[in-house]
Amino acid sequence: MLLLEIFLGLVGIGAGIGAGLVALGAGLGIGRLAGSALEAIARQPEAAGDIRGSMILAAALIEGVALFGMVICVIMAFAI
Amino acid sequence: MFKSFKSPFVSLLILLISLTSFNVLASEEDGQREYDAQYHTMHHILDGYSWDFFKFPGDDEYVALHLPRILWNSESGSLDFYLSTERALNDGYISLYYINKEYLDGELEVISGQVLVPEAIDQVQTLGNKISEAVDEDERKKHREELKSVVASYKPMDFSITHNVLYLIFSMLILLAIFITIANRYKRSPYSAPKGIQSLLEPVIVFIRDDVARAFIPEKHYRKYLPLLLTFFFFIWVLNLLGLTPFAANVTGNISVTLTLALVTLVMILFSGTKDYWLHIFWMPGVPIPLRFILMIVEIIGLLAKPFALTIRLFAVITAGHVIIVSLIALIFVMSEMGQNPLGGILISPVSILFILFINLLEIFVGTLQAFVFTLLSAVFIGQALEEHEHHDHSKEEVKEAQPSTA
Lengths: 80, 407
Fold this sequence. Notes:
Chain A is about 90% helix and about 0% strand.
């Protein structure tokens, strides 16, 4: 019985650390993206519209990847 | 200060505040019953057999519109149609919820409203009788395990109109109404300037045609795929926006819905692959032969990973947004619970409601963006399948490049 509780606790820890790492990854990735986009806009303000559009698109894709990881963490936390 | 109420922005803000309060239905805590935030979150995200509106304080059941059940009765081989779950139960079906409460002490995971086909009812009733008449604990346990396995293995074919199906139908009706109007206007006066809803949606349709379809699908074929891409975009967009209204269902947050859409994309990719495309997947030129077998497996996984990514991306983004909104609303009730005093809720309401408004606006944006991303990626994948590049012998090309160029 104790082993089961330890196991469930470990699953919880794993899910928590996983979700944190996922958020970290998404934050780093989108942060770099935003940094490059801002630099590019500063260099060439006429292209601001194009750059903004590409930035939002790339941010959506990166966030999609982050949410794959989040889905796995949620499954771990609630269904195992 | 009251002059600002005339400004449309402030009115919109006030409208949004008043609407979000219906999104989560919570019963007033009466000291005995604790507020269960997880239950309300799950209730908002999952599908159900009734369209729930609100709950009177102190009640257990929602004021709801019960949706029709369409069940396949394998005993009599007929498709039974009932106007509500209750009528199905009155007609001889048994509810899993009842069995769970009566005999299994809540051990079975049930969605309330699940019903059993009559052919399992005999087994269930005999086992239920055996459980009630069991002499000792072991016998009871044995019968309970048997009952659990009988119930778990019985999944009647359920074609019911659930909450999500209802909203899919709403979305379909909205799209039909809008686009048939637009098409008729184009037919009636093809050379006049667009007006009304035609002029609202024409830039969007042209944007999808030029920057999504034409940009990624070769010129020869893009018109064939344009209806599909437009349908993807507007269908997912309307569903995402509908999910943010009061009493709504979380349709695109249901993985079955997104999986179906992604499978449509997969079928389109498979049926529009040129010979070049399949050659590059299974027997790629320019690669030593033993390596081709390994790469074939990798390429097939890549082919299947694309719709899988589409599914999970849309599902996770929309569900995450809804969970955040519902959790922020639940925060108000949890705060008032912790101090056993509504003051906690009152104090945190302004903060919570501001966040909820912000997240709601963000979700409108994210819903639109995710619909666009789904359409864009479908266009990209279909375009990849349709690509035709010149067919030259790859191995000879390598030899040519290895030769030094003479100045």
